[in-house]
Specification:
240 residues; mainly alpha; Glycerol uptake facilitator protein; 10 helices; globular
Length: 240
């Protein structure tokens, strides 16, 4: 099988698992701590499953960071992102479909990312706040990925655990603010999933924020890493 195709399938599977299990935990009432832990555990599981195949990005913001750091080609970047979006959409559709078939209710905006304190009104302050939250959270997450997967990492075999714990950390902070995206594929999946299963377009109308801000955070992390760690190199990435 073609190497790039293997990577694409791995990224699709990884993002599917992320949305189905981690977002599923949020939708089914896992609570703040439970949901944060679920996202972290998925990363740990996938890092040690598909990490050796694709690097386990399962997140366009991570892939953009790797592209800027020249750790992947433009072609690979677009293949990765397309695979991540497809995997995320499949995860959301299956998750919401199972809940519906089981007789449960898929709440409006279930598992989606929304503006800070969203009350149905567009306000500049809320948009700016959401952008800042997502940029900061994604920056920290991707910056840790670069350092944990560097050849000079203190504990390279624990990279997956370190990155998973970092994702748990950013979710603990961000869930009550934006629902925590730090991952455009995850936000796109839940936004379209909610539109299809509930008919509500609220999340979809705001999804552009949760595409642009995480990508900006990922790009910033790559630039800062290159400036501060010029002598380091990154072998692989294991992330959301």
């Amino acid at each position: 099988m073609n190497d790039l195709l293997k990577k694409a399938i791995a990224e699709c599977i990884g993002t599917f698992v992320l949305v189905f299990f981690a977002v599923g935990t949020a939708v089914l009432g896992g609570g703040l701590v439970g949901t944060a832990i679920a996202f972290g555990l998925v990363i740990v599981a996938m890092a040690y499953s598909i990490g050796r195949i694709s690097g386990c990005h399962i997140n366009p913001a991570v892939s953009l960071g790797m592209l800027i750091a020249k750790k992947m080609t433009v072609k690979e970047f677009f293949v990765y992102v397309c695979s991540q979006i497809v995997g995320g959409l499949l995860g959301a559709v299956l998750l919401f479909a199972i809940i519906k078939m089981a007789g449960g209710n898929v709440a409006v905006t279930a598992g989606s990312n929304l503006l800070v304190g969203w009350d149905g009104k567009w306000e500049a302050g809320k948009v700016i706040a959401a952008f800042l939250v997502e940029i900061v959270l994604t920056f920290v997450f991707v910056y840790v990925i670069f350092n944990a997967t560097s050849e000079k990492a203190a504990a390279p075999k624990l990279a997956g655990v370190i990155i998973g714990l970092t994702l748990t950390l950013v979710h603990l902070v961000g869930i009550n603010l934006t629902g925590t995206s730090v991952n455009p594929a995850r936000s796109i999946a839940t936004a379209f999933g909610n539109l299809f299963f509930t008919g509500d377009a609220t999340a979809l109308s705001q999804v552009w924020i949760f595409i642009i801000a995480p990508l900006a955070g990922g790009a910033l992390a790559a630039v800062v890493y290159k400036l501060l760690h010029k002598d380091d190199s990154v072998e692989s990435t294991d992330a959301e």
